């Protein structure tokens, strides 16, 4: 029980009578990579939005590190170390790559409300930012304006930015969506590397990636949990095969 | 009873019907604003100016061509609708991809041009416009005298509002409109010409504003500036009601008109600010608006 | 990165270095001419009026250009502060700087109230809420007795600075107001280029991401709003000081429209754009009659002679042109031409 970093009890979200997330109970073990899969519209992104309080739950409880965080503000949740990425790319497009990471690092300086200080006081963060960029292979792009990065690199930058706040729990929403082979492999390596000492909850459609990374898989369908377990367990579950995995296997073999 | 606080019933009722009439205008205008925003993603600042144009056209029809009220009630919205179509094709058309603020700024520019033209033609003083002879006078309802023209405006505008609601919520074309606000691509796949639908929607929305303008002409002074303050009240109505629901817009508009009428009796000084106050309160207690969709 | 790309990067850096040194020398030129202006026969009050609007536009730009918030209610701070300044100067005879402080304080408090309400909604609703609340302020000023109703406050004394420097002479006032405006402008430049300014930029570019990184963006936005309102109020107080009157036009939403236009014409999100925009729009409003006569003469179209009475229409046309084909504004286009990499 105490090894659960995050536990969700009876979480429900209704949109005008339609239950997008329906009585979900979920436990994410400390130090694990936990994958959330399910067909489009299953409620995965909505669940992320609830966990980070971008949406208010209709009912249910969210416990993080033994504390009830259901009523907290999104920025408070982030300060606790729950950092999310978004399904659509979440970068600051007109800033340089370095500045993107620096925004994340800046919070710990405690000068973010200092409107009288010079921006050059942030230069002390440059080295750390470069190290993080280096770890995701973006060091040489540090001066590039972010819009000009390729899609895969933008997603890598997102992960770098997320890493910069030293998250306890990383929530990644489809980190490889829309990527080609090479980029997927790179992100896979990246996630594997950064998962050391952290907990990751990720939504992912690429089954081979899920199979090789995830310790636990939760299958969501129409807002409810259909199955949960290791890859082999879930893959054997007849309900899952019927509802989802069958297609997913085809997807793995064919498309990716 | 303390005479200071004694409000004669006829005064109260008269202000209430006047409030209801104003509310009907709010309803008609915010309805058009919501329909346009739904499909075009543009907050049509020019709505007030086009309402004014409707009224001025009615006046011009009478004074230059001797065309009466009833004809202008149809012709004026028609002309303004066509002007709207031209505006949409010529100007709005180019900015749908941009941030919403540009739609607001562009229509603000259009407002200034329309009001500027009318001002240089007619000045700023009010132009008198008489109600049609059929609707002059008042009817004794026993407990109050109801001016016939007010009764007519109420019936006409609420009918138009409900017809619009019915059209959008209950007909097939309306369902395309609603779907178009969610996902234009899907509607396109039904074989609907979405750009034409957008153009016509704008034309319809502003024609509605012009219709309200003609209805208003005999009650208020016809003036090039008559839409200037109204549009901001309409914005407040839209913030209070939320733009997601047609019925919401109608109900909010009517309710605010009545509340404003009540304020005129109880504390007249606040009557011009009460709608904004209510908006502030709503923002505090229910930020998404009364009929707003969940965030 | 290829050698070519690197070279491209370097050369664009060099260009921006040159631009920077150029902009330094440009500011020196502007500053010197501002300091000397009263001696070369320029009417100081006109320059001061322009400076007040330039400051107003720069404060407004702090929100739209650097935070991404379109406020449609800034007239309330600008015009409202003018009234507050005027009222206290007239009836209490306080020193000018105290009057200005009171005006700014009014702007800050009103900014806090309007800002707290408006940040509850996003995007276009934000603009509509600020507009509606500012309209409420307009009506209050219209009805409150101390504002003099339709006539406004006339004959506001300039009083004495610090209690002993009389501001009766236009020249003394000129240097005082010039100094204040310059300081305020430098303060705005610093805010934009501060750690706080970086977070504002982040909010403008991607607010949900800023939230997810742990920033309470509503608080940042509210502070930006109050700051912007305060600087606008400073501009409004100074304008009342310079011109000696405060009227309803400055509180009306059309004034909010004007400041939007100035900023848009000059360039949203640029430091110098709003200044340039203010110069252009104020000059245009002043000279439009003459321009009309000139056009009438050149083209032979009589109608142009009435242009002087149609300021709003001309403003409207500029709005339309700007939105349709000129969204980066003058400075924006200039930088794009000179610095293609960005
Ligand atoms: N803000 C919202 N309002 C109404 N319905 C929503 C909203 N967000 C998501 N939904 C609905 O909730 C369901 C789940 O969506 P989502 O969580 O995005 O699915 P997934 O990420 O699993 O593909 C969908 O049917 C979607 O239409
Ligand atoms: Mg999703």
UniProtKB/TrEMBL annotation, chain A:
It comes from the Bacteria. One of its GO terms (molecular function) is ATP hydrolysis activity. InterPro entries: AAA+_ATPase (IPR003593), ABC_AA/LPS_Transport (IPR051120), ABC_transporter-like_ATP-bd (IPR003439), BCA_ABC_TP_C (IPR032823), P-loop_NTPase (IPR027417). Residues 6-247 form the ABC transporter domain. SUPFAM superfamilies: P-loop containing nucleoside triphosphate hydrolases. GO terms for cellular component: plasma membrane. Signal peptide: none annotated. Keywords: ATP-binding, Nucleotide-binding, Transport. PANTHER family: ABC TRANSPORTER ATP-BINDING PROTEIN, CONSERVED COMPONENT OF ABC TRANSPORTER FOR NATURAL AMINO ACIDS-RELATED. This is Amino acid/amide ABC transporter ATP-binding protein 1, HAAT family. It comes from Marinobacterium lutimaris. The lineage of its organism: Bacteria, Pseudomonadati, Pseudomonadota, Gammaproteobacteria, Oceanospirillales.
Automatic annotation (TrEMBL), chain B:
InterPro entries: ABC_transp_permease, BCAA_transport_permease. GO terms for cellular component: plasma membrane. It holds the Pfam family BPD_transp_2. GO terms for biological process: amino acid transport. It is a multi-pass membrane protein. The chain crosses the membrane at residues 33-60, 72-95, 101-118, 151-168, 194-218, 230-259, 265-285. GO terms for molecular function: transmembrane transporter activity. Keywords: Amino-acid transport, Cell membrane, Membrane, Transmembrane, Transmembrane helix, Transport. It is found in: Cell inner membrane. Belongs to the binding-protein-dependent transport system permease family. LivHM subfamily. This is Amino acid/amide ABC transporter membrane protein 1, HAAT family.
Automatic annotation (TrEMBL), chain C:
It is found in: Cell inner membrane. It comes from Marinobacterium lutimaris. InterPro entries: ABC_transp_permease, LivM-like. It is a multi-pass membrane protein. Pfam families: BPD_transp_2 (PF02653). GO terms for cellular component: plasma membrane. GO terms for molecular function: branched-chain amino acid transmembrane transporter activity. Keywords: Cell membrane, Membrane, Transmembrane, Transmembrane helix. The chain crosses the membrane at residues 26-48, 60-86, 98-117, 124-141, 172-192, 222-246, 258-281, 288-304, 310-334. This is Amino acid/amide ABC transporter membrane protein 2, HAAT family. The lineage of its organism: Bacteria, Pseudomonadati, Pseudomonadota, Gammaproteobacteria, Oceanospirillales. It comes from the Bacteria.
